[in-house]
Amino acid sequence: MSLAGQPLDKESTAEKSSQSLLTVDDVSIGFDTDDGLIRVVENISFTLQRGKTLALVGESGCGKSLSALALLNLLPSFGSILSGRILLEGQDLSHVNEKIMRRIRGDRIAMIFQEPMSALNPVFTVGAQVAESFRLHRGLSKRESQEKAIEVIASVGIPDPKARAKNYPHELSGGMRQRVMIAMALACEPDILIADEPTTALGVTIQAQILDLMQELQAKHGTAILFISHDFNVVSRMADDIAVMYAGKIVEYGTSRDILANAIHPYTKALLETTPRIGVSVSHLPAIAGRVPGPAARPAGCYFQPRCPISFAQCQQVPELISISPTHRAACFSLCQGELDD
Amino acid sequence: MTEASESTNTVPANPLIDAKHISRVYPPGVAAVSDVSLMIREGETLALVGESGCGKSTLGRILALLDKPTEGDLSIAGDDVVALNRKQLKPLRREVQMIFQDPVGSLNPRHTVEGILTEPMKIHALYDVKQQDIEAIKLLESVGLGEEDLKKYPHEFSGGQRQRIAIARALVLNPRFIVADEPVSALDVSVQSQILNLLVELREKFALTYLFISHDMAVVHHIADRVAVMYLGRIVEVASRDQLFGKPEHPYTRALLASVPRMTYKKTPMGQVLHGDPPSPLHPPSGCAFHPRCPHAQPICRQQCPNLEAIDGSQNQLVACHFRGEIE
Question: Which of A122, A259, A329, B172 is deepest in the core (most CB within 10 A)?
C-alpha cells in the first residue's frame, strides 16, 4: 500500500458535493463559555449520499452528536457554527433562519434519538405525535393525518397499529417506542435520517429488529442515514462509510472496509483493538492509556499524540487529512513518514 | 483453546454461593425472580446475562444481600443467610460487596474519597484512624489512583475514575464475593477495557469471585468462566463460556447470540432472529415464558414450564427446555 499521499485539497471536496445530498464542508462549532469561546468541533467535512449510511464513530465528548445537531440547527443556546457550510442540495443551512429550518426539519431531515421515552411527548398519544408532521408539512386535515399516521405506524412493523396509535408512550415497550420514533421520523419520507445511538437503550434482540428495520426502510425510500454510534460492531452492520472522530475532529474517513479492515490512524486501530469480540480470547484487552481531553484542554499539535503509541516530534504540529486512496483519508503524520509498522 | 478453559471449569471447587429455588415476588404478585437455583464456585467469574427486565439485577441484589428472596435458600460460604436478621448478617456483609453501573449515583457527592473509603472501616471497626488512611491509599493505588486523590470529591473525577473509586470501596472490607452489576456499561470503549482489565487483575490479586451482570455478550465472552442466561425471571441456560458461545442449546440463548452484531466489513442486515418483545412479568405467558417467541414451540411449551436440567450426564451445561438436546 502506498502511504505517500497529498493533503486533501478543498476543490476535490467541492467537486464531490455536486453528486451528494448533503455536504458538510469545513464546519467548526463553538461554545460560548465564561472562559471565552471554546472550539468543540473543528473543521469537519463529510457527505451524505442517497441510499447510503455514513457512521460517525467516537467516544463521548468527541463531538459526534453536536455535529448532527448542527445539521438541524438544534445546537444548544450557547453553541454556534463558527465557520464552514452545510449544503443541502446546494442550499446552505449553516445560517438560515428558524422559519426556513422548521420546514426542513422533519420534512427533509429527520432525527431519531437514543432514549425514545424522553424524545416522545408523554401527554399525547403516539398516533397524534406521528400525525403532527403530516399536518405541519403536508397540510393534511386532522382526520387524513390520523389515517396516514396509522399507515406509517403499520409500516414500521407495529402490530395492531390502529389500537397502538391510541396508546401513550408509557404504555409501549422500549422497542415499540423506538419504532414509533422511527415512524415519526420517516412520516414525511425525509431525504436524510439522523440516528443518534438509536439502539443503545435497547436489548440485543430488539436492537437487531430496529437495525434491520432501518436498513429495510432505507432500501425502500433511498434515505441517506447519518448513523451515530460508539459501537464498532453495530456500525459494521449499518455503515457504507465511516468517519472516526476524536476530540472534535475527524481523524479517519473511508468506506466501511477501509476503516474496519485497513485502519491507518493509531486511534482507530486502538479503538478497534480495545473492543471485546466474541470468539477472541485474550487475558488482557489492549487498552488505550489516559482519556479523551476535554475541549478546553486539548493538547498542541495532534490531539491524540499524548496517548499515541507511535507519536514522534512532528506530532507537535497539526496533522491534515491525507488521502490514502480515493475513498480513504486519515490525519496522521506517520503516513508521510512511512513510519507505520503494520 | 476449548479444552484448556473447560478443564479449569471442571476443577471441583467449593461453591461459595449456593442459591436453591430462589424467588422474589413483589406485591401485588410480580415475580422478578422465579425458582432460580445457581451455584457459584470459589474463584470463578459467573456472568449473568439477559435483556432489560429479565430479573438479573434483582437476582444480583439478592446474592449481594441487599434484598431477600421471598422463597428459597441461599448460602454463602456454607452459612445459610435467608433466616438471619440484620445483626447476624453484619459479619457476612464483609464477605459480599457490590459494584453498580452508574458510579455517579453510587458515590455520595458530599463525601471525599477518603470518607467514602474509610466509612466501611468505621462501621466494621477495622483499623485505628491513622491506619484507615494508609489502607485507603493502598486501595486507591491498587485501582490505579493515588494518595493525591484522597481529599477529592467524586465530581472531580471522570466516569472511569469514579468507577475505580467504586471498585476500591467494594474492596475495603476484603470481600470474597463481588456482584458487579453492569460495571462497564456506562463507560466509553477505551475506558471500558481499562476497567475490565482492572477487574481481572484484582480477581487474581485478592482471590475474588465475581457475579458479573451484563447485557453485552462480547464483554461477557471476555471476562466470564461460566455464563447463566436469564429470561423473564428464570435461568434458561447455564454453561461454561466456551460451551455457551460454541454450542448454545436453549433457543433463547441461540437467538441472543445471533442478535449480537459481529464485525463484518460490509453492510449486512442482522437477519433478525426473534420477533416481538420480551414479555412483561405482570402478564407472564403460560408454560415456558419463551414460547410465544420461540421458533420451536410445541403444545407442551404452552402448558408446562421446563426445569433446568443437565443436557448430558455432566453438570457442565444445564438447559431449561422441553426439547433440550433435540433441536438442531
Answer: A259
